[in-house]
Known about the structure:
binds zinc ion; alpha+beta; single chain; 7 helices; 231 residues
Amino acid sequence: xxxxxxxxVLDVCGALLAADQQDMVWGHAGVRDPDGRxxxxxxxxxxxxxxxxxxxxxVGWDGTLVEGEGRPHIESFIHLEIMRxxxxxxxxxxxxxxxxxxxxxxxxxxxxxxxxxxxxxxPQIPRSPLSGDxxxxxxxxAALAAALxxxxxxxxxxxxxxxxxxxxxxxxxTAVLLxxxxxxxxxxxxxxxxxxxxxxxxxxxxxxxxxxxSQLDAGYDYLLRKAGRRA
Length: 231
Ligand SMILES: [Zn+2]
């Protein structure tokens, strides 16, 4: 039992809950096993606000249960196949935020109309070309990982998002900030044409000044406090 990995999954799920990124019992977070055996993921059938340590288990690279109890998420292959080809990723998140799906349905470029957006527009966040169906086997997982490439997140049209990071804070804040960036784009577009958004120069400056690692960590630490996972 990797107690640290289990606590990390509980942290990420708690932070996502605190950021209102829960979709009943769907959506999941994965943390790479430090011994290379697979990915620690919450089990199927429980919501973020119901989780205990017993609900987190280790899924091996072939998608079968290695440690713990319960049924693995059918979409565990999202985490497994991304981490197989992205050694830099230790944390991955798959969720279905309404704003992300609504934005993806527009099939237009995301505009950086706030701080959040600059992380996803230069280059534009990739979009999975897969159908909106579940990622229920290793070949669809590998195709999603290919669509993600080296990006921090990928839109999954008609389904949701995947967000990754070198640590829990980066992955979690990426998922949270992408949701907010999509919601803001939708709000502006619903009110009229989007005329003012960051250009390349402003994107580079704001990425460096607004989103250094210290600020991603600060946002994540706040979400952990809000979730009651930290004092
Ligand atoms: Zn899904």
